[in-house]
């Protein structure tokens, strides 16, 4: 496993222990199985982007908490699906501005289903290159180069690449102030 998955495993364990939660309680809060959470904490398995979103949402922390060490001098890339969806933080979690900003590459034929984020999250998606299918509130729409959409991230939403070319898009996620 690489440095990002090692950092992810350690961060998950620290966040769980800080809350004094068992793996069972974490599974209940995130909707991710106890077995999978244990494998992630032991750095035996790397979660998909969708699974990591569930974990971040259940713990009520920004997604980049798991892939961007605060002291990192270089950009971390999270690629759990061997190139299906590559997530690179452009601006990791900023506690003053309450946002994450990601550059995302989605492989041809790839689908990523996101569980709802915490209440009040607003997501902005802008396509840089390619065609991106998005499902928001059960409605699919296609975005092309330069097009974007803003939506409430606290509902289920999906990203799909139906084309034969990798799609590149940015996702800016605003979290409500605590």
Characterization of the model:
The chain has 178 residues and is an alpha+beta fold. Helix content is 24%, strand content 32%. It contains four helices and nine strands. It has helices at residues 3-18, 23-30, 34-41, 49-59; strands at residues 85-94, 99-106, 111-114, 122-129, 132-136, 139-143, 148-152, 157-160, 167-174. The strands form two sheets. Strands 1-2-9-4-7 form a five-stranded antiparallel sheet, with no helix packed on it. A hairpin with a 2-residue loop joins strand 5 and strand 6 (139-143). Helix 2 (23-30) crosses helix 3. The longest helix has 16 residues, at 3-18. The relative contact order is 0.15. The mean pLDDT is 87.
How are the secondary structure elements laid out?
Elements: H1 3-18, H2 23-30, H3 34-41, H4 49-59, E1 85-94, E2 99-106, E3 111-114, E4 122-129, E5 132-136, E6 139-143, E7 148-152, E8 157-160, E9 167-174
Antiparallel strand pairs: 1-2, 2-9, 3-8, 4-7, 4-9, 5-6, 5-8
Q: Quick one: biggest sheet?
A: 5 strands, antiparallel
Mean pLDDT: 87
Q: Globular, elongated, flat, extended or rod-shaped: what is the shape?
A: globular
Instruction: Count up the helices.
Output: 4
Number of strands: 9
The helix-strand sequence is: HHHHEEEEEEEEE
Biggest sheet: strands side by side, in what order?
1-2-9-4-7
Strand content: 25-35%
Low-confidence stretches: none
Query: Terminal Cα separation, in Å?
Result: 34 Å
> Structural class, judged by helices and strands?
alpha+beta
* Share in helix: 10-25%
What is the CA-atom radius of gyration, in angstroms? Answer: 16 Å
């Amino acid at each position: 496993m690489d440095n990002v998955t090692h950092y992810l495993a350690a961060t998950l364990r620290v966040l769980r222990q800080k809350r004094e939660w068992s793996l069972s309680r974490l599974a209940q809060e995130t909707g991710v199985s106890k077995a999978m959470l244990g494998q992630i904490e032991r750095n035996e398995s790397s979660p998909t982007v969708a699974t990591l979103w569930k974990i971040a949402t259940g713990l009520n922390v920004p997604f980049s908490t798991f892939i961007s060490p605060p002291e990192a001098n270089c950009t971390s890339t999270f690629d759990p699906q061997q190139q299906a969806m590559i997530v690179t933080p452009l601006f990791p979690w900023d506690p003053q501005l309450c946002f994450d900003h990601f550059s995302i590459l989605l492989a041809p034929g790839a689908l990523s289903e996101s569980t709802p984020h915490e209440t009040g999250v607003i997501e902005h998606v802008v396509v840089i290159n390619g065609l991106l299918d998005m499902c928001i509130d059960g409605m699919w729409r296609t975005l092309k180069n330069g097009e974007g959409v803003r939506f409430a991230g606290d509902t289920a939403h999906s990203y799909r690449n139906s084309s034969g070319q990798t799609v590149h898009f940015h996702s800016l996620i605003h979290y409500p102030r605590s």
